[in-house]
Amino acid sequence: MLVSATEMLQKAKAGHYAVGQFNINNLEWTKAILLTAQECNSPVILGVSEGAGKYMTGYKTVVGMVNGMLEELGITVPVALHLDHGSYEGCMKCVEAGFSSIMFDGSHYPIEENVEKTKELVKIAHEHNMSIEAEVGSIGGEEDGVIGRGECADPQECKMVAELGIDFLAAGIGNIHGKYPDNWEGLSFETLDAIQKLTGDMPLVLHGGTGIPEDMIKKAIELGVAKINVNTECQLSFAAATRKYVEAGKDLEGKGFDPRKLLKPGTDAIMETVKEKMELFGSVGKA
To answer: What separation in angstroms does the CA of 45 have from each of 30, 80, 112, 137, 182?
Structure first.
């Protein structure tokens, strides 16, 4: 059964580890992440961007697939299904479809409008026993057309949004989506520390977890980050393993073209990446 992410993230923050949010794109992705979470005895958050939700034909399909897998695969670790970078309309659709968690990304609105819309969605989410994440300060890079420059959030604005009753907060601390450029200046721990001091026990979220050096990840967890989002890294490892399979001509041997065989190396590569991340985040054995 899907659970909200609130309790798993409060436990993570108190225990100084982080729960990974791994974005899903199809059946293989979902299965790989769930099986790895079960094997590692780790809580997990399945992230769905609006673009991926559309690609998978809609949120109801996603909910049906995930619920079916939890049952058929005998998954016993806590699993949350979370809308990533949701618009107001997207959040409402996920409430209806049966997600267990939503993120409202109002970071591109003036702070007053972000506060107003977040407030409304907090009420709706909590009426449905769902957790809700909000964002302050744009996350750099591109995520389904949402582009930011790796800005740092204003700690006072973070405090204002944290006090609206949200369950966890994504704050820009110089992180970006996608591959990090060579001239990236790193995370601003000064900003993170200031936000942590003003938001107290609120679990903080680090977006754009792909390519951040391990020591920075560990320091971010020490400073209150309890949820780390990973997407690009799984895509890159899936693509590399699939390329290797095709370039080695494996798809031309016997029934190597069968999608179940063709997609297996990539799926195994996702499992490996997820396991590495769970070990790095410290969530192994914490289910």
So the answer is: 11, 5, 29, 22, 30
Q: Give me the half-sphere count of Cα atoms (radius 13 Å) on the Cβ side of residue 102.
A: 31
As annotated, the active-site residues are 84
Is 274 marked as a binding-site residue? no
Residue 273 known to bind ligand: no
Q: Is 230 annotated as a binding residue?
A: yes
SS3 38: helix
Rounded to whole angstroms, the Cα distance separating 237 from 118 reads 35
Question: Which distant-in-sequence residues (6+ apart) come within 8 Å of 202 by Cβ?
Answer: 162, 166, 168, 169, 224
Contact 170, 192 (CB under 8 A): no
pLDDT one-digit tens code per residue, 140-157 = 565 555 544 467 889 999
For the stretch 253-271, pLDDT in tens is: 999 999 999 999 999 999 9
